[in-house]
Amino acid sequence: MSPGPRLTPRERLVLLSVIEAYIATGEPVASQTIARQFANSDGMSAATIRNVMASLGDEGLLDRQHSSAGRIPTPLAFRLYVEGLGIQGIGPAPAHANASTLTQQQRDRIEDSFAGVGSSQQFMERTSQVLASISTGVGVALLAAQESHALEHIHFSRLAAGRVLAVLVTEGGVVLDRVLLLDSDLDASALDASARYLNENFRGWSIDRIRVEMARRLDEARNEYDRLMRSVEELCDKGALESTGEAETIYIGGVANLLASPLDRELLRQMLAALETRQRLIALLNAYVDARQQTVRVVVGLEETMPEMRNFVFIGAPARLGLRHTGTVAVIAPTRMQYQETIGAVSFIAQLSDRILQRPQ
Description:
By secondary structure, this protein is of the alpha+beta class. It folds into 3 domains: 9-73, Arc Repressor Mutant, subunit A, CATH 1.10.10; 90-144 and 248-358, Beta-Lactamase, CATH 3.30.450; 148-240, Enolase-like, domain 1. It has helices at residues 9-25, 31-37, 46-58, 75-84, 104-112, 120-134, 145-148, 188-202, 207-221, 226-240, 255-259, 265-276, 278-288, 339-358, and strands at residues 62-63, 72-73, 90-92, 138-143, 151-160, 163-170, 175-181, 249-253, 297-300, 312-321, 324-334. The strands form 3 sheets. The chain has a 6-stranded antiparallel beta sheet with strand order 3-9-10-11-4-8, sandwiched between helices. A 3-stranded antiparallel beta sheet has the order 5-6-7, covered by helices on one side. A two-stranded antiparallel ribbon has the order 1-2. Helix 2 (31-37) crosses helix 3 (46-58), helix 6 (120-134) runs antiparallel to helix 14 (339-358) and helix 8 crosses helix 10. It is elongated, with a radius of gyration of 27 Å.
């Protein structure tokens, strides 16, 4: 990203005032409004402020929708504003702009919103709703692939000779069932023993990891557990442990926030179309949030990933359970938003996942 324009202290002060006035009102900001704020400041007359705002317009930081209207900040201006909070335009949030920006009352209210949550899937689904209620944008939560398809329980039922129904429940709450056509018939006791072996040994494991471990154990203990392991092997090979083919699960809440925002109809249509394209939205989250980091990412202007979203902001962070990455939580909103509060909420919820999912239910 090319560096922003070099501003004088006076220009920065006026730009900050215009941005904060626009965030507060949603209306174009006139020079008279800013002049009233600096009525007693030396060298900051109404004429001076008009000149400064004109200069900021020439720099691409302020836009005038009508010749007689006030000015509104551009995405570049909001990018500089975020950097003024100590956050890089595409980078991690610093300590002073994270969850510590929330009051204790706000933290308690957010944590209370997760009452009754007991799984990663429930946490992510609730997160999209909570972030939407807090922000002026859309709350988005992406459940990591290993969380979507980690084994909670598996059960086998004999339907007929050589035909078995496998029902697999994941830790994310997904239920997968399929009919397996076996090369040999397995009785109920063999099926029960196979299910018991998988449930006792591999609960919480990803499907791919179970298959790898099964192959290793077969090589090590083929003679001792030959009959049992061969039964389990055939059930697995016939498709009992196949995933749906969808690597990640995404939850979206708060689209109504966009409908209530002062966006023009074409911009709103493009934004809603982008949100409906699941793979593009997943790609957006994966592009901007590094699962290896533990910091909030703030990106102003998303045109590099989605051209129709140049007037939107992305605020996201990875969620963890212990050392395991469980997904991504984020807000996508118009540039006019309460930055510090939203950044704090995203950071707090990302940190909250570990405590919520490990506490006794």
